[in-house]
Design a protein that fits this description.
- The N terminus is likely disordered.
- The chain contains 5 helices and 47 strands.
- The chain is globular, with a radius of gyration of 28 Å.
- Helix 4 packs across helix 5.
- The protein has a 22-stranded antiparallel β-barrel. A 5-stranded mixed sheet has the order 4-10-11-8-9.
- By secondary structure, it is mostly beta strands.
- A hairpin with a 5-residue loop joins strand 45 and strand 46.
- The longest helix is centred in the N-terminal third of the chain and has 14 residues.
Length: 810
């Protein structure tokens, strides 16, 4: 503002400005630094399709968890799966993980301070003391660790420093009795040692009432802490030790029953019994069907909803800066325990109730060797990873009324109503070992033209041991397809178990199948990367890359009955591969007040791993060959001195080129035999609930859009007001590969608002926010298995949420 030269006029203008304020001036867009290439580079100089959010952007976008960046990142989608809580299953350009069973690996690699997280359970980290989140699209195996076939999400937290004692504390309050407190303090202990201590507590009531209970679904009760200790031993050597701990004690995800058939298999089948020949109380299911898809719709559940997650870890990062090259070592150990109960039929009858109990331990070691000359920048690495998983998924297979059996814990599936149950336990131990050599080098042919060559050689081994049984201690079932005459005693009956498969505890010893209860397989792969990038005279960057990614095969975590009604070993599936060709262009215009980054991609998917159902059982299978293509565009504009605008546009088109339709053929043949209709009519009916060539990929909206703006009003005192609005829109999406009718979430849009005041010194900030202020109601996950198991269920989104935050820094 240019003040008048007259002293009186100048004083009057200054006083008015102090009261009214003026827009804040920005000369140009701030420079964005990323570590997408395992070294710090400018975003505009990095030939990768990457979206980056620094600490300030995360705050202004009201990002509470890592998954919140999905709304602002083209071609990135996410679901918390059936369990909810802090689980996160990410998809980038159509590649991700549909099945929450840990026998299936993530398709998108998740990293926290350089450490790969093997399971997506608990991986939706709270945004506490974050320095940056980076989303890298496409295969990244030449620089990152295991299973980055779809891309990588790189979370970086703040490190200790020697700039003096400093810290911040944030207090939040809001809808559904939200209380959040997080604090971080930086402590220089000596001239060479510094520490950073972070703690967080978040509690919030659930948003879906349970009929007949005082509990709510989707409640949050999280606590976490992290300590980092930095030792700068010399100018050339540093050591950073990080230890973290997280404890979640919420309730399971909000669940609605969208539709049902009381006989388990119709409308595909006319069969009038469910899989264990028990009549299902249709009235209980009918009463629970949601008449409206809304978080205000009460849920009928027959379990005590539980979502307990504990995760902890330690990582030691060593850096040596030598004369001609540098060495980095990252040593990590992590542990995870999770226990979640779900009512997947959403009714007061324990028809499809179950629980997940997971224990996971992982250790990893990574060495990076890097260096540079005038014309060459290179990095080579060694990676070792070992993971052990103990898993038990108990699923109710049937029930009968027993009014005296309320809260009986003889069966571990706790229920509130009077029923006896029979449950199958899908239990196994999984041991994974992954070893890799990787490297990438970029050579400057000229000042403008660079070429990149990279590779990853990966060797992976999996060993899976089965310990599966049926819990019939309530004596519900007196039917056994394994033997004649039929009979299943009121006891635990082992189906596939190392100790009892053909032993005295198995009543069907005459017909049981002898087998080795452990599967072991090893896979090796070589995945290259090639790229060229050219720096134009105006500073724009054009690039083209080709990269391959790999996800190992495995063994299903669920048993299958064969044609004789005998339980057989879970089926195996082969590795999948993706090759992606990407063209990108990055530019900054109008004196660096406009930034536009675009990318076009073409991907070929081989042996794609999909979750399908066959004979009423879930199975991960290889679907054949598929293709994907699309683009992303991200725009940031300093529209005026006070107004900043950001926008993103994503498009992904998916197509099955060659599809193994054996499951459809099998289902169609069953329908022909059951209903006596023609094969063509049976096949058409089966297509509604089975995978076919016209289906779109799971959790992959074709279009995604976001646009937002922030206006900053600066007061003469130095304080400022900030006002922000964001709109995000997502196209239709199916949550499962088969695209069954109830799996669909139609397109929807959300509006988020934020306003705040910040002191002149930047030490105090108060903000109010609103998420989904228009009250949009939508699903976050769905599973339509009416044709196989008789129900269609879904998890529903949270309602509109409002809150206030106060942040104090020193």
């Amino acid at each position: 503002m240019k003040y008048l030269q007259n002293p009186l006029s100048a004083a009057l203008a200054l006083a008015m400005t102090g009261l009214i304020g003026m827009p804040v001036a920005h000369a140009a867009l701030d420079e964005v630094v990323v570590t997408a290439e395992k070294r710090e580079t400018k975003l505009q100089d990095t030939p990768i399709a990457v979206s980056a959010f620094d600490a300030n952007a995360l705050k202004e976008l009201s990002v509470a968890q890592v998954s919140d960046v999905v709304a602002f990142t083209p071609n990135l989608s996410q679901t918390s799966g059936p369990t909810g809580g802090n689980d996160a299953y990410f998809f980038i350009r159509g590649v991700g993980q549909v099945d929450s069973n840990p026998a299936t690996d993530p398709g998108v690699g998740m990293y926290s301070d350089g450490v790969y997280l093997g399971r997506m359970s608990g991986a939706n980290l709270d945004s506490v003391d974050l320095k940056r989140i980076e989303v890298l699209r496409g295969p990244q195996g030449t620089l990152f660790g295991r299973n980055t076939i779809g891309g990588a999400i790189n979370v970086v937290t703040q490190d200790p420093n020697f700039d003096g004692v400093s810290g911040k504390a944030r207090v939040s309050a809001g809808s559904r009795s939200l209380i959040g407190v997080d604090a971080a303090v930086n402590l220089p202990i000596s001239e060479t040692i510094a520490a950073r201590i972070v703690a967080n507590v978040k509690q919030q009531d659930g948003f879906q009432d349970i009929v007949g209970s005082d509990k709510q679904l989707s409640a949050i009760d999280n606590q976490s802490a992290k300590v980092k200790l930095l030792w700068e031993a010399s100018d050339s050597f540093t050591a950073l030790l990080a230890v973290d701990d997280f404890q979640g004690r919420g309730t399971s995800a909000s669940t609605l029953l969208l539709g049902f058939n009381p006989y388990g298999r119709s409308p595909l089948y006319k069969t009038t019994q469910n899989p264990v020949n028990l009549t299902v109380p249709a009235a209980d299911l009918a009463a629970a069907v949601a008449t409206k898809i809304s978080p205000d719709t009460d849920s009928h559940v027959s379990i005590d909803p539980t979502n307990n997650t504990d995760s902890s870890g330690a990582a030691l990062t060593l850096n040596w800066d030598l004369d001609s090259f540098a060495v980095k070592s990252i040593t990590s150990k992590r542990e995870l325990e999770q226990y979640v109960t779900n009512d997947f039929d959403g009714s007061a009858n324990p028809y499809y109730d179950n629980y997940f109990a997971t224990t996971q331990d992982q250790v990893s070691q990574e060495f990076q060797f890097s260096g540079s000359t005038d014309s060459l920048v290179w990095l080579a690495g060694l990676f070792y990873y070992n993971e052990k998983v103990d898993y038990d998924n108990a699923i109710n297979n049937g029930s009968r009324v027993n009014a005296s059996n309320v809260n009986n814990s003889s069966n571990p599936t706790d229920r509130r109503n009077g029923y006896d149950i029979v449950a199958s336990h899908q239990v196994y131990d999984l041991d994974i070992t992954s070893q890799a050599i990787f490297g990438q080098a970029t050579y400057s042919f000229t000042e403008a033209l660079k070429g990149t060559l990279g590779f990853r050689y990966n060797q992976e081994e999996k060993e899976q041991t089965y310990k599966m049984f049926i819990d019939n201690r309530d004596g519900v079932v007196a039917f056994n397809p394994f033997q004649t005459p039929p009979g299943l005693p009121p006891a635990i009956v082992y189906t596939l178990d190392a100790r009892n498969i053909c032993g005295p505890s198995n009543p069907n010893t005459a017909t049981c199948i002898n087998f080795v209860p452990t599967d072991t397989e090893e896979w090796t792969t070589f995945d290259p990367k090639l790229g060229l990038d050219y720096k134009l005279s105006n500073g724009d960057l054009a690039y083209v890359t080709y990269a391959q990614g790999f996800r190992s095969g495995g063994f299903n975590g669920r048993p299958f009955p064969n044609e004789f009604g005998q339980w057989t070993k879970p089926k195996s599936y082969e590795p999948e591969k993706v090759g992606t060709l990407e063209f990108g262009y990055k530019t900054q215009l109008a004196d660096n007040t406009i930034r536009l980054n675009t990318a076009v991609f073409f991907s070929k998917y081989e042996d794609m791993q999909v979750l399908v159902t066959q004979g009423g059982f879930f199975e991960t299978a290889n679907a054949g060959e598929s293709s994907l293509y699309g683009f992303e565009a991200e725009l940031t504009v300093e529209a005026t001195e006070a107004l900043n605008i950001m926008a993103g546009l994503g498009y992904t088109k998916t197509k099955y080129d060659e599809l193994d339709n054996s499951s459809l053929v099998s289902t169609a043949n069953d329908i022909v035999a059951d209903q006596g209709i023609s094969y063509d009519a049976a096949y058409a009916l089966a297509e509604q609930y089975g995978l076919d060539e016209d289906d779109t990929f799971a959790n992959t909206p074709e279009w995604s859009v976001n646009i937002g703006g922030q206006y900053t009003w600066m007061l003469a005192t130095g304080a400022s007001y900030k006002f922000r609005a964001d709109y995000v829109w997502q196209d239709d999406v199916y949550f499962q590969a088969a695209n069954a009718p109830f799996d669909l979430q139609e397109a929807y849009g959300l509006v988020n608002l934020r306003g705040g005041w910040e002191s002149a010194e930047g030490t105090l900030e108060v903000a109010v926010y609103g998420k989904n202020v228009t009250g949009e109601e939508y699903l976050t996950n769905a599973q339509d298995v009416i044709g196989q198991l008789g129900v269609a269920i879904a998890q529903v989104s949270a309602p509109s949420e409002y809150g206030v935050e106060a942040t104090f820094s020193f």
